[in-house]
Design a protein that fits this description.
Elements lengths: L8 E4 L4 E4 L7 H13 L5 H11 L5 H14 L1 E3 L5 H14 L7 H12 L6 H8 L8 E4 L6 H17 L2 E8 L3 H10 L4 E6 L3 E7 L8 H15 L5 E7 L8 E6 L17 H10 L2 E2 L2 E4 L5 E3 L2 E3 L3 E5 L4 E6 L5 H11 L6 E7 H6 L7 E4 L5 H18 L5
Parallel strand pairs: 15-16, 16-17
Antiparallel strand pairs: 1-2, 3-4, 5-7, 5-8, 6-7, 6-13, 8-9, 10-11, 11-14, 12-13, 14-15
Helix pairs in contact: 1-2, 1-7, 4-5, 7-9
């Protein structure tokens, strides 16, 4: 993914709309030349590879060059020392040379270097590269994928520029059609604050709090949004509208994308367990425990005009079902809205796990809230499940 420094966008002043940059067909030969540079420079230092790639891209619009080179670096594989040996060698060289400063005799210099390095590289540039091999500039290119083509680079550039705009999103809305469940799953696994509601005649709308509206971890949250977009573009029948605060003092600009824009992503959708908390819980509970069976799948629960998408579902052998939602990112306003929505859920047994410090800040807690400190303890959860099962057995009509 790109940083803010390398994003390129176009702003339409009359409509206050913003558009992420995309490369034209005429750029493909230049992209192919840059890819050829990377393929032919295996074993070369990162700095030299990047400089040669910049030369190959000299006819590309200047504001696009660094973004393209960064994306090529993401695809390439570099090798660098995994220890602090170079730093230690530099200190020893400088300490040894200090006693003989100033060193004007080349032979004295080689003797000092040899006492520390053993074998001394032939040229000055190779000596510097050896001493500073732990600096990114001197990392060595070891591989570049043979199947990567100019069209792939253009697709990566288009997606990365759109992702970079979302770093400054205040709010994002996604209207989902055919792949609603997949899109909701992507949002949940990307750990994004979101609300789901029905839109009469057009399916469902997901509303996300943008990175600029989250009180903490703004940068990390912006990266999560970028990861979500990489998964979203693989879905069908969606439309996205966002408000982007590119300029701190200006009015947020409108940014729109849809499945018809032909964005492509080579990044796989988020892994099943994006959160170590969720992964740890699922591993400790197992597939089944005390007659309860754990499922991780997207459920849609009605909460008035909104929908709730829990993280896990439990089914007991007697037919009792319980949904479990784990609250991830949090703000006081978000938690208040979450509780206000969950109280509207009907016909479903629900448990909501919330970190204790957040739960205490919310004041009086509904009975279906399960506070936890750092991890969800089974000794706290299992009594909740059993209590819901007993209540369900009382409410369940007798069978003949």
């Amino acid at each position: 993914m790109l940083t803010k420094a390398h994003r390129v966008y176009h702003w339409d002043r009359p409509s206050n709309s913003i558009f992420s940059d995309r490369l034209e067909d005429g750029c493909l030969p230049l992209l192919a030349r840059a890819i050829a540079v990377y393929r032919s420079r295996i074993g070369e230092r990162l700095g030299r590879v990047r400089n040669d790639a910049r030369a190959a891209l000299e006819n590309l619009r200047p504001d696009r060059i660094e973004a393209v080179v960064d994306l090529l670096d993401d695809v390439a594989t570099y090798d660098w020392p995994g220890s602090g040996r170079q730093a230690e060698q530099r200190v020893r060289v400088f300490e040894t040379a200090a006693s003989a400063h100033p060193i004007l005799n080349p032979e004295v210099r080689r003797t000092i270097l040899g006492s520390v390095l053993g074998a001394v590289p032939d040229t000055d540039s190779d000596i510097v590269a050896h001493l500073y091999a732990d600096y990114p500039e001197f990392h060595r290119l070891t591989a570049f994928p043979a199947e990567y083509r100019a069209a792939h680079l253009r697709d990566d550039y288009a997606l990365a520029q759109a992702q970079a705009l979302l770093y400054d999103a205040i709010e994002i809305q996604v209207e989902a059609g055919a792949d609603l469940k997949h899109i909701i799953q992507y949002a949940r696994l990307s750990r994004l604050l979101h609300r789901v509601e029905r839109v009469p005649g057009s399916g469902y709308r997901l509303t996300f709090d943008g990175p600029n509206s989250v009180l903490r971890r703004t940068h990390a949250y912006g990266v999560d949004f970028a990861r979500f977009l990489a998964a979203l573009v693989q879905a069908r029948d969606w439309r996205m509208r966002a408000r982007i605060a590119v300029h701190k003092r200006g009015r947020p600009a409108a940014f729109a994308l849809s499945s018809k824009d032909s964005f492509r992503s080579r990044v796989p959708p988020p892994v099943l367990f994006d959160s170590s908390l969720e992964e740890s819980f699922a591993r400790r509970f197992g597939a089944a425990r005390e007659g309860w069976h754990l499922r991780r799948e997207t459920l849609l629960l009605e909460a008035g005009a909104s929908l709730v998408v829990p993280d896990f579902a439990f089914t007991h052998d007697d037919g009792t079902e319980v949904a479990l939602e784990i609250v991830g990112y949090w703000t006081p306003e978000y938690l208040a809205k979450k509780f206000g929505k969950l109280v509207l859920v009907r016909g479903v047994n629900l448990v909501v796990a919330v970190r204790k410090r957040w739960a205490l800040a919310a004041g009086a807690l509904p009975s279906w809230v399960l506070p936890f400190k750092t991890t969800i303890l089974l000794k706290d959860l299992m009594p909740r499940l059993e209590a819901l099962r007993r209540r369900a057995s009382v409410d369940r009509p007798p069978t003949d």
